[in-house]
């Protein structure tokens, strides 16, 4: 394959790269006055990159025709679906940022540029079919994320979040690199296809350790137990638009990358990694649910909710089938919509002075003072809890069905039982908002962008959104098939 064909397959990444460099120059010469312009242009660039990925998904791209740069990157249907989800989440996070940073006079043009470069790293991550490109994409995303976490330089909580994320992220990168070196040492290649071929006859002890360390490094990125400890602190301390970004776009990229590594590079040895994934899934569901019960801070509670939902996503991965991968993508899409809506609702909770409110005491009796926000939060929390007929319920049904079809009935049964625990803290939102005396703290409304995103997310997870599930199911099936070209 020549370089012209390879460059043609990575046009979305080239658009993001060129746009990022141009916007960086605009930010450098335009200063803070250029913040709005840079944000709009960054969103346009993400939209353009997204439109360029649609043909790969629509055509079910896969196999050798989708490989670029001698097997380093794959522009298949799976990566196209993940990119569309990442780009959409990033655009949503860019839309909600000005309202938050503007009231603090902290909106700078560097923010959308950092989001753009982080998204570029995620785009490389989901397309990576080699350990080298995997690490390049991962670090490009991580380096931008460390700065975003500490973006409010005058806020000690933001600085602390950035430092914690950096230190623990560096540790996870070291673990991942060690696993990659072991994998290379015992298979003789960094290519996913080569690793899979080298393990067809069996998995050596050294390669097994490499697999364990690689999965451990990736588990940090998806906030899976026992590598979840950074999530509540970083989610609470980082600026809320940044927390929203962390909970959506990077989560999609990390889950998609984990799925590609497990099903592509180590797909011939599913029995070796399945037990690891099952443990992480069940532990994440239980720890996330139990950890959230005692939380009073809304952002910390949503952080544990994120951990809990990763567990359900991993149930789909544990199936190691086309149906399991499709269910995983279906749940991931639903999760992004629910998380984006939930964090935007939290972002809209402000007092008369414009200060953001983040505790349960602040939303007591919210249905009386802000009925619209309370109603949207009610629907989002019920959907996260998996209460029918909201979309979150059908997402859970998909992953449990995939597990049962793969013969993992005990896993599905335990997952269903454990999901009941999570309903407690989601229903706590409803109790506080609708059945406690109003405190009247959340009095200031959100911007038009906040309302637009909150209403769209609420409609998508409502019974009306169920009408779109057939189309979503078709897309996830096509994307999942990209990971199983021979099936």
TrEMBL record:
Domain of life assignment: Bacteria
UniProt domain NADH:quinone oxidoreductase/Mrp antiporter transmembrane: residue ranges: 128-422
Catalytic activity of the protein: a quinone + NADH + 5 H(+)(in) = a quinol + NAD(+) + 4 H(+)(out)
Localization: Cell membrane; Endomembrane system; Membrane
Transmembrane spans: 6-30, 37-58, 78-99, 111-128, 165-187, 207-230, 275-294, 301-322, 328-351, 372-395, 407-427, 448-468
Enzyme Commission code: 7.1.1.-
Functional summary from the UniProt entry: NDH-1 shuttles electrons from NADH, via FMN and iron-sulfur (Fe-S) centers, to quinones in the respiratory chain. The immediate electron acceptor for the enzyme in this species is believed to be ubiquinone. Couples the redox reaction to proton translocation (for every two electrons transferred, four hydrogen ions are translocated across the cytoplasmic membrane), and thus conserves the redox energy in a proton gradient.
Subunit field text: NDH-1 is composed of 14 different subunits. Subunits NuoA, H, J, K, L, M, N constitute the membrane sector of the complex.
Protein family (similarity comment): Belongs to the complex I subunit 2 family.
Protein name listed in UniProt: NADH-quinone oxidoreductase subunit N
Species the sequence originates in: Alteriqipengyuania abyssalis
């Amino acid at each position: 394959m020549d370089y012209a064909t390879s460059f043609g397959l990575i046009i979305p990444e080239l658009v993001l790269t060129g746009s990022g460099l141009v916007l960086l120059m605009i930010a450098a010469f335009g200063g803070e006055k250029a913040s709005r312009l840079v944000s709009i242009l960054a969103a346009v660039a993400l939209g353009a990159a997204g439109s360029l990925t649609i043909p790969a998904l629509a055509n079910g791209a896969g196999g050798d025709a989708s490989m670029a740069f001698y097997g380093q990157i794959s522009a298949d249907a799976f990566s196209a679906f993940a990119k569309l989800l990442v780009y959409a989440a990033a655009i949503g996070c860019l839309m909600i940022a000005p309202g938050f940073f503007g009231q603090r006079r902290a909106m700078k043009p560097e923010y959308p540029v950092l989001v753009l470069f982080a998204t570029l790293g995620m785009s490389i991550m989901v397309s990576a079919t080699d350990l080298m490109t995997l690490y390049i994409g991962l670090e490009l995303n991580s380096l931008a994320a460390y700065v975003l976490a500490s973006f409010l330089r005058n806020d000690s909580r933001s600085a602390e979040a950035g430092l914690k994320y950096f230190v623990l992220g560096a540790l996870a990168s070291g673990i991942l690199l060690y696993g990659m070196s072991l994998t290379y040492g015992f298979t003789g290649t960094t290519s996913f296809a080569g690793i899979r071929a080298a393990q067809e006859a069996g998995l050596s002890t050294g390669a097994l350790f490499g697999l364990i360390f690689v999965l451990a490094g990736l588990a940090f990125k998806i906030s899976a137990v026992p590598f979840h400890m950074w999530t509540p602190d970083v989610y609470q301390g980082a600026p809320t638009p940044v927390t929203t970004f962390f909970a959506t776009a990077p989560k999609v990229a990390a889950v998609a990358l984990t799925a590609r590594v497990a099903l592509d590079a180590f797909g011939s040895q599913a029995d070796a990694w399945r037990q690891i994934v099952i443990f992480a899934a069940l532990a994440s569901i239980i720890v996330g649910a139990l950890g959230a019960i005692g939380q009073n801070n809304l952002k910390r509670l949503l952080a544990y909710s994120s951990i809990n939902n990763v567990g359900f996503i991993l149930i789909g991965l544990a199936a190691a089938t086309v149906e399991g991968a499709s269910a995983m993508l279906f749940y991931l899409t639903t999760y992004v919509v629910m998380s984006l809506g939930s964090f935007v609702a939290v972002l809209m909770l402000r007092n008369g002075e414009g200060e953001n409110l983040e505790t349960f005491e602040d939303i007591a009796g919210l249905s009386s003072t802000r009925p619209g926000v309370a109603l949207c939060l009610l629907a989002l929390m019920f959907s996260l809890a998996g209460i029918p007929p909201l979309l979150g319920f059908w997402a859970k049904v998909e992953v449990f069905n995939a597990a049962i079809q793969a013969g993992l009935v005990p896993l599905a049964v335990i997952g269903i039982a454990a999901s009941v625990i999570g309903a407690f803290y989601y229903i706590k939102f409803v109790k506080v908002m609708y059945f406690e005396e109003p405190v009247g703290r959340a009095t200031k409304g959100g911007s038009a962008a906040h309302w637009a995103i909150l209403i769209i997310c609420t409609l998508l997870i409502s019974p009306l959104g169920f009408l779109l599930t057939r189309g979503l199911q078709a897309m996830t099936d096509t994307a999942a098939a990209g990971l199983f070209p021979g099936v």
